[in-house]
């Protein structure tokens, strides 16, 4: 016996000014079609907005748009990324150690940003 899908609605928001985290999502379904939207603050200062809908017959459909204009810093500092394509730990060694034991630590796992793919 097949059961009819139930309708639902949910949403959430995460905003942390200290880390720069800012995203939200809302979704609803009438039992046949799912509709939703999520917004993510991107590292370049824009807001990515994805509006989507899906059903069993036509599959998933998404409209992706952006608010704002991308902003890029003039120059990265020594503790940022270098032009060599690797991470610069502040020493002029191209981001690589000269061998031996390293006690240098990079940024933590919680970068404060979330990306939806």
Reconstruct the topology from this structure.
Elements: E1 8-16, E2 21-29, E3 33-41, E4 47-55, E5 59-67
Antiparallel strand pairs: 1-2, 2-3, 3-4, 4-5
Organism: Rhamnusium bicolor
Protein name: Pro-resilin
GO cellular component, one term: extracellular space
Observed structural traits:
117 residues, S-adenosyl-L-methionine-dependent methyltransferases, 5-stranded antiparallel beta sheet, 5 strands
Describe the structure.
The chain has a domain of 51 residues: Single Sheet (S-adenosyl-L-methionine-dependent methyltransferases), CATH 2.20.130. By secondary structure, it is mostly beta strands. A hairpin with a 5-residue loop joins strand 3 and strand 4. It has a 5-stranded antiparallel β-sheet, with no helix packed on it. The chain is built from no helices and 5 strands.
- Radius of gyration from the CA trace? 21 Å
Strand order of the largest sheet: 1-2-3-4-5
Give unreliable regions as ranges: 102-111
**Beta strand count:** 5
Q: Examine the secondary-structure arrangement and name the CATH architecture of one domain.
A: Single Sheet
What is the overall pLDDT average?
A: 78
Order of helices and strands: EEEEE
What form results from the Cα inertia axes? elongated
The first-level CATH class name of one domain: Mainly Beta
N-to-C terminal Cα separation, in Å? 35 Å
Strand content: 35-45%
């Amino acid at each position: 016996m097949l059961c009819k899908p139930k309708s639902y609605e949910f949403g959430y928001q995460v905003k942390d000014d200290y880390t720069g985290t800012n995203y939200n999502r809302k979704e609803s379904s009438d039992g046949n079609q799912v509709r939703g939207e999520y917004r993510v603050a991107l590292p370049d200062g824009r807001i990515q907005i994805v509006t989507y809908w899906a059903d069993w017959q036509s599959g998933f459909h998404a409209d992706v748009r952006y608010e704002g204009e991308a902003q890029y810093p003039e120059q990265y500092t020594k503790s940022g990324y270098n032009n060599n394509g690797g991470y610069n730990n502040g020493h002029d060694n191209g981001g690589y150690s000269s061998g031996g034991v390293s006690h240098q630590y990079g940024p933590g796992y919680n970068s404060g940003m979330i990306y939806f793919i």
